[in-house]
Write a structure and sequence with these properties.
This protein is an alpha/beta fold. The chain has one domain (about 10-95, about 155-255): Rossmann fold, CATH 3.40.50. About 30% of the residues lie in helices and about 25% in strands. Helix 3 packs across helix 4 (about 130-140). The protein is globular, with a radius of gyration of 19 Å. It starts with 8 loop residues before the first strand and ends in a 6-residue tail after the last helix. The model is unreliable at about 115-120 and about 250-255 (pLDDT under 50).
Length: about 260
């Protein structure tokens, strides 16, 4: 006798539309991202990937449609409210405090879920109660030995690691990563792949990524956007053979 198992939908969009002065940046986007999977959003420049991420995380409000996080509609909520419901994100552009140390960056970010009043002028010694949490996060993202370095002195790849660590301070159930390997060489890319695998344990990860080697190695499923609309969704090996995807994005790589 086979027992059926039901997977939970972690993040869902229903006919999601975002218009800017009559231009549809996302066009009836419907997605179902399952709990525990690593899901990539790919597509050519201008396909609507960043707009979609901004809609998912509350930085933009949709013209129409729905965003659901574990069944709860969140498209009308503010970003901080969405974070508190379990969705966090990193950004393509570095968003760390350069004059603070690596550990201080994490300590400041930990104020919110700790229940402490969120104040940038809070003396750092008052945050030391959060030190064990900060140290554990730095170990998770491979920065335990860099805790005392200024964020400004980190390499591009190390800043990415720190940004992911900052995202983890909110203990998200769903983590959005925007171009996590952008601008990296092969060594940095390999390190980020392993980092994403580690942080994905016990949570759902959604990433925008241009590097198809990363996408093929890392993800369970992918969704391809073109002109703001979904043209394909599924496992990488299936999607890469889709004629629309070949024409829109992958080109000769799909025949490699």
């Amino acid at each position: 006798m086979t027992i059926a198992t039901t997977r939970t939908t972690a993040l869902q969009t229903v006919k999601l539309v975002k218009e800017f002065h009559g231009f549809r940046a996302t066009n009836d986007v419907t997605l179902d991202i399952m709990e525990g999977e690593i899901h990539a959003i790919i597509g050519p420049n201008g396909a609507g990937k960043t707009t979609l991420f901004n809609l998912l995380s509350g930085f933009l409000k949709p013209t129409s449609g729905e965003v659901r996080l574990f069944g709860e509609r969140i498209e009308t909520l503010q970003p901080f409210q969405i974070v508190r419901r379990g969705l966090s994100r990193s950004f393509q552009i570095s968003s760390v405090f350069p004059t603070m140390t690596v550990r201080e960056n994490v300590l400041v970010a930990l104020q919110s879920p700790s229940g402490l009043p969120f104040q940038f002028w809070t003396p750092l010694h008052k945050l030391e109660a959060l030190g064990p949490q900060a140290d554990a996060i730095l170990a998770d993202v491979g920065l335990a030995d860099s805790y005392s370095r200024l964020a400004a002195d980190l390499s591009h790849g190390e800043k990415r690691q720190l940004e992911i660590g900052i995202s983890l301070t909110q203990n998200p159930k769903v983590l959005l990563l925007d171009e996590p390997t952008s601008g990296m060489g092969s060594e940095g890319i390999a390190r980020v792949i392993e980092l994403v695998r580690q942080v994905a344990r016990g949570r759902t990860v959604v990433l925008v990524e241009h590097n198809m080697s990363v996408v093929s190695e890392l993800t369970d499923r992918i969704t391809v956007l073109q002109y703001g609309a979904v043209i394909a969704s599924g496992k990488y090996d299936d999607v890469r053979r889709d004629p629309q995807v070949i024409e829109a994005y992958l080109g000769d790589e799909a025949h490699a």
